[in-house]
Design a protein that fits this description.
By secondary structure, the chain is mainly β. It is 8% helix and 43% strand. Strands 1, 3, 5, 6, 7, 8 and 9 form a seven-stranded mixed sheet that branches. β11 and β12 form a beta hairpin.
Amino acid sequence: MKKTIYTLLSVLLFSSCTETVSDAKQESVLPPIYPDYVGVTIPVNIAPLCFCMADEGVERIDAVITDRHGNDLHCQGEKSLDFDLSDWHALLDQNRGDSLSVTVSAKHADGWHTYRPFSIYVSPDSIDYGLCYRLIEPGYEVWSKMGIYERDLSSFDERALIENTQFEGCVNCHSFNRGNPDDMSLHIRGPHGATLLRHSTSKSLLPLTAYNTKTDQTLGFCVYPYWHPSGHYIAYSTNATSQLFHSADPNRIEVFDTASDLQVYDVENNELLLSPLLKQDSIYETFPVFSADGRSIYFCAARALPKDSHQLDSVRYNLCRIDFDPATGRFGSQIETIVDAESQRKSVSFPRPSYDGRFLCYTLSDYGQFSIWHHEADLYLLDLATGESRPMSEANSKDTESFHNWSTNSRWLVFSSRRDDGLFTRPYFCHVDAKGVVSKAFMLPQQNPRRFYRERFLSFNVPEFIIRPTRFDSHKASRLINDEYRKDFGVRK
């Protein structure tokens, strides 16, 4: 009886605030909607794809989503659509591996217009519980308010893990072991600089600890972390980084290294593992990541500039690989070039192998390694079985595509893009099937997307998948950060 009453009440409320779409002019074109969800492939458990019309002069918007079984979902709003969460998920669950048809009508000054229907494919491949990212204003020289946040991808729930209002400095470089928040690394820069680490063993979750990662045998603090699949190691780079501003160039800022090396941290024994092959003064090494089986390390490497040279557009990074033995913590005796981007007058950054060992995604730009400010930067997909690379044209845009990560089932890729307005980075998702077929990318759903992005002038930085809530105690973390104690990293002798 209660269910019947609630259903009747919701029908009455819906009916009282909707208009009948009548005498509509039939348009032969697809609806110009924001965000663009036309023809996308989505996970079966994604939050509702709420959207509005690109034309802000539209008075009302109406959408009917139907499936081939006769089910439908109807929504209407003044400026934006807000689909019922439970109805949306019920419809997606009933249409795993099938397509939905979406018919959009918009009320203009001259009345209703109904546009050509478009389809949305519901992939049976689910996406992970959530996404973790840094929100930051697009400044260059000073820290304003920023923080690390997590978002439930099946809804619109977001919460702050930690914000720099709790301490003085910058919070960045969060990393998890294949989305497992029990294995977590988080960097703090500034007067309270530290690396916060916690990791799990077979028996327990060890407490969060603040570390000093700088040693007398390394260039500086450890950054750009990537966990070994076993959880026993973390690959890091140490980078001496500078930035310059272009006086006449569409890429307004250049962030570059003047020196960089690689090392691996043995979590269990609190030791940095070093290799002379990864500490060459003549080479810039950066962005280390472990292979899916944990037996090798992919990284980016470029020939170092001569001293006092500022020809930054001549620095080009190749994708390289070195063996790693997780049983002994020893490195291989040679470095292999996997993608020779330098010979193409291009540069590789942000390599990320899929967890099934099938592919590796990387960013390709004209030069340098900090491609988030390069408008020409695109995503490329390397087939690890054949060694062939190709641009991910289905997901790329005319603007910047940069940092990216794989879902734990290796079927979804999240990446940062500036395609929305050319200024702010937003998270986008695309599906990559077992054969490497890539779907059209779609923006992270928001309940009211236009209002959300107009009121929140922040960039989404370093999106990372998480398989469950992080259970991160921000008060304990802030006490650790503000405390003077730091546990030192050791170095294997």
